[in-house]
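B., you asked whether I could sanity-check this one before it goes into the benchmark set. Here's the sequence:
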Amino acid sequence: MEFNRLGHSGLRVPALCMGTGTFGGGNDFFKAWGTTDAAGATRLIDVCLDHGVSMFDTADVYSAGLAEEILGTAIQGKRNRVLISTKCTFPSGKGPNDFGSSRQHIIDAVDGSLKRLGAEHIDLLQLHGQDYNTPVEETLSTLDQLIRAGKLRYIGGSNFSGWHMMKSLAASDRHGYARYVAHQAYYSLLNRDYEWELLPLGRDQGVGAVVWSPLGWGKLTGKIRRDQPPAPGTRAHTIPDTGPRYEEERLFRIVDALDIVAQETGKTIPQVALNWLLRRPTVSSVIIGARNEAQLIENIGAVGWALTAEQIAALESASHVTPAYPVWHQRDFPMLNERGLTPRT
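And here's what the prediction gave me:
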């Protein structure tokens, strides 16, 4: 397994992280992801550890906390070998303070996660979304307090806009609070919006990407083609209106390019798509999911080799899309771009 620094922190994380969205299947939405129970999760985690995948990502809203409980059961006796990443912010109950990034909710959410996980600390806590209603100083001072109390080791955001992440980083620098070192963000060949502002921000500010849904919500597996609609039982079939937006013909163009590279490398389409992400700037870890051991082993096969420059160029050409303003305008002036950028150290 390859290991990377998490942003500019001192923590080294595996290039691949196991996601637990498939654990539990506590409601109709998550049943479309998977229904892995504690015994199945224990087996998958053992396979992960055998291959060096030692970080596991979850959230308090995954199957209403059941995913955290299953993960906690599955890592019993192995806590010193694993890194736990979890998230809070989205509604976890019906009360007026059961959501958001307030001091009230964060403290309650962290205590709840620790109890479900059966752990004394969380290695990486990420805010699942940005809360426009809570001052960033309140959020960051609370997270800093929890780090000093030993309940958290590192912190990050998830699904943040560039301006909100930068506002938070500036507040941390101003007040001496712990900084976000991770941004759990969506990024794939199907949707490359991350590159427009979040990637340059991560490079400049030392924030490492922990990528979720690297296969484009299951669209980049090679199972969906021009003459092959989503199969029953898959997320693309069961919950077709969720996940990232995309143009159908562009998806097919990307899959065609992935198919060619897969044949050239002797790898599978998912392995090629994951390997492309692993080489992208700022990417610290890529979250893989699996309903079964065969899928897990296939995804782990994305590490230990590299695409050629020509193959990377072919994939990026097939997945190209004109970025939003002001990114396209800025790219028209290469003398003003990243050549002179000095990353934060």
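One thing to flag: Residues 3-340 form a domain with the TIM Barrel fold (CATH 3.20.20.100). Otherwise nothing jumped out at me.
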